Sequence to fold (436 residues):
Amino acid sequence: MSPDDAGTWVEDSRRQPFESTVIPMEELTDPRGWHFAPGTGNLEHRSGRFFTVEGMHVRTGHGPLGEWWQPILVQRDIAILGMIAKEFDGVLHFLLQAKMEPGNAGMVQLSPTVQATSSNYTRVHGGGRTPYVEYFTEPGRGRVLVDVLQSEQGAWFHQKRNRNIVIEVTGDVPVLDGFRWLTLGQVHRLLRRRSVINMDARTVLGCLPVAAPAGGGEVFERGGEPGGLHTMTQVLSWFTGRKSAYELSARLVPLNSLAGWRRQAMGIVPEGGGEFGIVAVRAHAPTREVHSWKQPLLAPRGLGLAALVVRRIGGKLHALVRAEVLPGYRDTVEIGPTVRSAASDRAAVAALRPDFLDYVLSAREGVRYDVVQSEEGGRFLHAETRYLVVEADDDFPLRVPPDFAWLTVEQLLALQRHSYYLGIEARTLLFCLNGL
Fold:
C-alpha cells in the first residue's frame, strides 16, 4: 500500500458514522457509569476501573511557579500498546488499525494493532473482545522486538505507564476490517501529514531497535562513542544530577478542593484562563468494542509546541535536550525536547518564556520537520502539538544552561530502549527525525 492509498484509507474511515459531542457534566453521571464521588468530588467510574479525574497540589523549587493546583488524570492500569510485525518479500510490515477515539482530531487515526488498557481488554465495559490482544497476553506468539514501559504526558497524567511491545510473527495473521499492513517507510511518509499517525503508534515504533544505527545498544552498555560531545557515562551522570537537583511534591488531593478551579455546567475550568479544562463527551463508534458511551476528557486550550534543536558537532548529529521536571512523572524528571510549551507560555512575559522558545519560533533556515500531530485521543479532546525540528548552524552555542545537554541521536535511541528516560514528546520528535 502506498502512502496515498493509506491516506485514502484513513479518509474513507473518517466517513463512517462516528460521533463525539461535548455534553453538560450532569449528563455524564449514570447509575452504571461515571459519577462525582461523595466527599472528594473525584470523577470516577462506578466499576472502579478505567481512570479517574482527581486533584493535585504541586510544590517545587524548579521553574517560575513554586506552587499550583490542577486536575490530573489517574490511570493505574498499564495499557498495552502492541504492534504485530511480519515480513513480506523481505520487508518488515506492521499491522496498524484505523481507530476512532472520541478526542481524536479527525476522529480516526492510525494506531498500533492493540491500544487498550486492562480495563478494556478484560471487558469491564461489557463490550466485545479486543482484536489481537492474545498476541501480547499469551507467551510464545512471536519473537519480541520491543518490550518496554514508557510514560505519557507528565503534565496531565499521574505516573501513567504503557507497555510498548512489538511482536514479530511468521504464521498467518487474519487481517480484520479496519486493519492493514504498512512498512516503516510508509509510516514515516505519513508522518508528513497532519494527525494521521497517532501518538501511540509513534511511541511504539520509535522504540524499535531496527531504527537505531548499528551498535546503538553498545553505546548504552559501553558508555561512549567516538564523535559524541559526551560519553554515555557523562550523559547518565548529567541526568542523575538533574533528578537529584530538584525537589518536587505532587500530592493527590480531592478534586473539589482545588484552589482556582470551579465546576460549571460544561466542564471543570480554571479561573482566569489556563492551559486546559475537563469536559464530558458522548461518543458513538460502530467499529469499537462498545458502540456508544460517555466519558470525561482533558481539553487543552490552543496548540502545543514541541521543538528539537539539532546541530552537527564533530561531524555527528546531536540534539539539544532538556531535563524536564513535571508533576506526573514517576521520578520527577524525564528527558524532553529543547522546547515544550503550551499556548499560554508563548503569550507570557519574556521572563517566563521557556529557554530557546524565541529561537525555534523565529527559525526560517534549517527547519527539517514542521508538522502538527495529535496526542492521545482516548483521554484528551483535540490535543494537537506542533512538532518542529530545527537544524542550527555552527554559531549556535555549545555551552547551554544546566538543565540542557547535547546528546547524539545514537545516545537518545539507546536511552529510548529503557524505561522512563525520554518523555513522550522527545520520543515522537526522535521518531520523526529518524525518518527524515
